[in-house]
Design brief:
208 residues
Length: 208
């Protein structure tokens, strides 16, 4: 008994006129999917590692630091306000600029302090007039020494008058005022030698 002929496309592999069925052997009811077409992206397989840098635009996270965190450098973006952390009197807000840029400025500052021991207020006054307009540091030292010498110059004159009026009983008063001038002038000169401004105590500050 012979088999009756089948119509074209019935899946007869021996029939050369039958078109190829791309879904042959893939029954949708069985849960299988049709094979992908040429050039379509392949889905990743479960459990496979992620693609490396450059594949699909994915780049691995940075490895430096805990949890991929990259700490900023210590000097990147750091900011400190002007004068922050500087010693008093060297560029801080509300303080006199006392740092010396040349040895000539330092010399004039020492003359303003030490010279007051010998000639009183004349030494800081000369330093102020000669170098005060050129150097803010010299001006700050000269003004401080000038106010001190004026104050204690007046005190010395008053002590001398009292010593004379007491008929010599209080002769030591002018010596005490002169001793005060010597001690604090030396202290101020030593501070100036270190580049610092010394604030004289017991001083009436007339000159600004």
């Amino acid at each position: 008994m012979t088999e009756p002929p089948r119509p074209p496309g019935d899946g007869n592999p021996s029939d050369p006129t039958a078109p190829l069925n791309p879904y042959s052997g893939n029954d949708p009811a069985s849960g299988s999917n049709p094979p992908p077409t040429h050039g379509s992206p392949q889905p990743p397989t479960y459990g496979s590692p992620p693609p490396s840098s450059g594949a699909g635009g994915y780049a691995p996270p940075p490895t430096s630091g805990a949890g991929g965190y990259v700490p900023p450098s210590s000097d990147a973006g750091s900011y400190a306000p002007p004068g922050y952390g500087a010693p008093l009197g060297q560029g801080t807000y509300g303080a006199q600029p006392t740092g010396f840029t040349t040895t000539d400025e330092k010399t004039w500052a020492l003359i303003a302090h030490f010279g007051g021991i010998l000639v009183g207020f004349i030494a800081p006054l000369v330093a102020l007039l000669v170098k005060g307009s050129e150097s803010l540091a010299v001006r700050a030292h000269a003004v401080e020494a000038l106010n001190f010498q004026i104050t204690w110059g007046i005190a010395t004159v008053a002590a001398s008058v009292i010593a004379v009026c007491s008929f010599g009983l209080l002769f030591f008063l002018p010596m005490l005022t002169w001793l005060v001038v010597i001690v604090f002038s030396i202290l101020a000169g030593l501070k100036a030698n270190e580049g610092e401004l010394y604030r004289y105590p017991m001083t009436w500050r007339l000159v600004k």
